[in-house]
Amino acid sequence: MKMRMGILMLAALLLSVSNSFAEEMKAEQEVAAEAKSVDNKICPIDGAVIGSMDEAIKVEHEGKIYNLCCEPCVQAFKEDPEKFHAIADKEVGMKHDEDKHVEEHADHDHHDHEKK
């Protein structure tokens, strides 16, 4: 009898834990669905080109999705997200500045500026 009661209690506990886990996963997916990709091409942790080691690992932080190069970098990001999201945001900001510069100068001919 004690054995059956123990099994029932264990089953109830496992069911409770699995429901809690499912709810947590659903909440994370909803947040990720609303998050915007930063589209960083360089890993803010170790400077590797995203995709050079393996497929990018995406991590959500404060409504933004950051690309990381590997699992160890995910842990580092989680330990200090403020530091690393600032690095990624800066990289993307610099990229956007370069793109804007190219767009601004696309309407004229580029020529050799070397002095002769």
Can you walk through the features of this model?
The protein folds into two domains: 1-34; 35-107, no CATH class. Helix content is 57%, strand content 10%. It has helices spanning 2-34, 71-79, 81-104, and strands spanning 36-37, 57-61, 64-68. A three-stranded mixed β-sheet has the order 1-3-2, with helices on both faces. Strand 2 and strand 3 (64-68) form a beta hairpin. Helix 2 (71-79) packs across helix 3 (81-104). It is elongated, with a radius of gyration of 24 Å. The protein starts with a helix and ends in a 12-residue tail after the last helix.
Keywords:
single chain, 116 residues, mainly alpha, 2 domains, three-stranded mixed beta sheet, 3 helices, 57% helix, elongated, disordered C terminus
Spatial strand arrangement across the major sheet = 1-3-2
> Residue share in helices?
55-70%
The span between the termini is 99 Å
How much of the polypeptide forms β-strand, as a percent range?
5-15%
Compute the gyration radius: what is it?
A: 24 Å
Structure summary, number of beta strands: 3
Which residues form runs of ≥5 with pLDDT under 50? 97-106, 110-116
Listing every helix as H and every strand as E from the N terminus to the C terminus, the arrangement reads HEEEHH
Number of domains: 2
What's the story with the biggest beta sheet? 3 strands, mixed
| Average residue-wise pLDDT | 77
Compute the number of helices: 3
Structural class: mainly alpha
> What is the approximate shape?
elongated
